[in-house]
């Protein structure tokens, strides 16, 4: 009889401990999932803000180009008026004696050349402004778009409560403070841990980290660092805009 009572008490204690560990780890799981989705949305918010800056860059570059071409166009119109004045009321021989014919020949050749170059200036300024505006519209509508996540990506970022049942048993029933909990390495210790990683058994460090956190690193992080930033690297939208102006 005492043996049965002892066994019953031990079973009750084990059941209570398992239930407590289960509830504790499930609460951690739900809390981590909330952080997971929050991190996912924060990343897209930052990406949307960055894309908004890129779109603003395109608009600023287009306004700069159009303003410069408008200045050239206005100067061309002023010189058009001056040339027409030299052709009509201000031409040689109207307000005084007519000069020799060879001087008039040079005069009219220069006036005609000036009109030809002014026509070219006006056409190129109009074409450059139109090309810049059309290129900006192309980039803003096709290339430099806001990164809006699709429903499939949103579903991939979230987790349901019953997905906790698919985790490892060691993560579901991990006893708090008894089993070593994972900790993030500080930057000064990362190099030392890389040197010690070869001496550890494969998978030993991964077992200390919950599987749902490992899945998040594989699915969402895609590596801890971004692409290397070089001295000659420029954002892609600048390269696309430069290609449109060539």
UniProtKB/TrEMBL annotation:
Q: By what name is this protein known?
A: Uncharacterized protein
Record region (Disordered)? 184-246
Source organism of this protein record:
Polarella glacialis
Q: Where is the composition biased (Basic and acidic residues)?
A: 213-224
Sorted alphabetically, the keyword list is: Membrane, Transmembrane, Transmembrane helix
Q: Which residues cross the membrane?
A: 71-90, 102-124
């Amino acid at each position: 009889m005492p043996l049965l009572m002892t066994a019953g008490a031990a079973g009750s204690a084990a059941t209570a401990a398992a239930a407590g560990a289960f509830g504790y780890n499930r609460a951690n799981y739900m809390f981590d999932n909330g952080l997971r989705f929050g991190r996912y949305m924060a990343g897209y918010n930052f990406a949307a803000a960055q894309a908004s800056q890129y779109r603003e860059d395109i608009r600023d570059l287009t306004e700069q180009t159009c303003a410069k071409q408008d200045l050239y166009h206005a100067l061309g119109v002023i010189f058009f008026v001056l040339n027409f004045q030299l052709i009509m009321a201000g031409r040689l021989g109207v307000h005084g004696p007519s000069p020799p014919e060879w001087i008039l020949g040079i005069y009219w050749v220069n006036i005609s050349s000036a009109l030809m170059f002014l026509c070219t200036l006006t056409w190129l300024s109009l074409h450059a402004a139109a090309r810049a505006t059309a290129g900006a519209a192309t980039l803003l509508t096709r290339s430099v778009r806001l990164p809006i996540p699709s429903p499939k990506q949103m579903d991939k970022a979230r987790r349901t409560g019953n997905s906790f049942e698919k985790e490892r048993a060691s993560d579901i029933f991990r006893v708090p403070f008894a089993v070593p909990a994972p900790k993030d390495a500080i930057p000064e210790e990362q190099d030392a841990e890389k040197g010690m990683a070869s001496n550890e058994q494969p998978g030993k460090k991964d077992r200390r980290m919950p599987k749902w956190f490992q899945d998040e690193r594989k699915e969402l992080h895609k590596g801890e660092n971004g692409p290397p930033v070089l001295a000659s690297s420029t954002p892609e939208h600048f390269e696309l805009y430069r290609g449109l102006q060539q």
